[in-house]
Automatic annotation (TrEMBL):
Gene this chain is encoded by: sufC
Sequence similarity: Belongs to the ABC transporter superfamily. Ycf16 family.
Family matches, as InterPro entries: AAA+_ATPase, ABC_transporter-like_ATP-bd, ABC_transporter-like_CS, FeS-cluster_ATPase_SufC, P-loop_NTPase
Organism: Lichenifustis flavocetrariae
Domain ABC transporter: 2-246
Protein name: Fe-S cluster assembly ATPase SufC
Alphabetical UniProt keywords: ATP-binding, Nucleotide-binding
Amino acid sequence: MLEIKNLHVEVEGKKILNGLNLTVNPGEVAAIMGPNGSGKSTLSYVIAGKDDYDVTDGEILIDGENILDKDPEERAAAGIFLAFQYPVEIPGVATMTFLKASLNAQRRARGESDMSTPDFMRVVREAAAKLEVDPDMLKRPLNVGFSGGEKKRMEILQMALLSPRYGILDETDSGLDIDALRIVAGGVNALRAENRGFLVITHYQRLLDYIKPDVVHIMSRGQIVKTGSADLALELEKNGYRDYVADAA
């Protein structure tokens, strides 16, 4: 279970999260929606361990263990995966080299042996085919020259290979056309499992048409202000965030 308790976070002295509480159960897809500036991306970065965020109070627990004192790589080994809204390009680093190094680093952290090159090649090709990732993309530097949709597919490919316990998708639908959105969502849905939870951060209902959430949380001013079923996202699509922004004021 991923539990966030009374989380307070500041950036350069500005308070972003204000006592946020949230639980994501194994096997659950939880969506977070909210207006710009509500703290959604900050929440994802803090869970993953990104620098420059000052946690002044609260806990982030996986199965009761607080991970706030762990480095990002330790959190990744514990089962946290963050798919970025804007995946970065890394010139000079071959995609296959990056994928193999990432996978084997996590295997070592779990006390497992490195995956052999033949096995790795087979696993990557099978996962890439399911996500309609062009094999030529695997021969290029990581994300260099990729379209927005290609970068997002590469993020989901990484998640498929690393098989995390909790996948956090930070506005994965941003910049995607309908075809790319369908493929990326299909990759996420293929990874849904009883022992794997997802936290899906989005502005729009359209992503949730493809990735059906079990629960929807509305975030405003650094707090969860309402929780409901998937129908809550439809309500937001119709009426917007005005009532919830006012409630949080």
